[in-house]
Amino acid sequence: MSPILLVPGYQNSGPGHWQSLWEGTQRDARRVEMPNWDFPHRADWVEALDDAVAACGEPPLLVGHSLGCLAIVHWAAGSPREVRGALLAVPPDVERPDTLEVLRGFGPIPRATLPFPALVAASSDDPFMALDRARWLAEAWGARFVDLGPCGHLNQASGHGEWPLGEALLQELM
């Protein structure tokens, strides 16, 4: 079984977040620790992800949430390292005018085809990314697109702890 690298977003994933729960239940799953969760810097996050991938004994599966998805996409644009695939859950649109200033450094969002299998899971009522835009980015990345329906930003604030559908999607990538 491939290692699983969990790549949380801005401000990390708290103890009840689905990524944190997966860290406790998915064999070989571990969190990529970013240098600064509250003031993310793209180059630092990409470097931390690269270090985590390099430390794996075999190509891992990447599981990004929110800003972690964009860290993965930026990393993929410049890294020669191999991964088995990526589950990109509710990436944010950091190019919107209402984006938090602290997140703007993750723009512009790369549009190149990802060099590994990927799946973009998006919510129809995500406050940080319009569904049509998420679908368009998935197409640009060469990723399979999954419309999750109305589930907010797929975090604790939107009522999500466990995420069984996400586990099923992860199994598809395995």
TrEMBL record:
It comes from the Bacteria. It holds the Pfam family Ser_hydrolase. This is Alpha/beta hydrolase. It comes from Geothrix rubra.
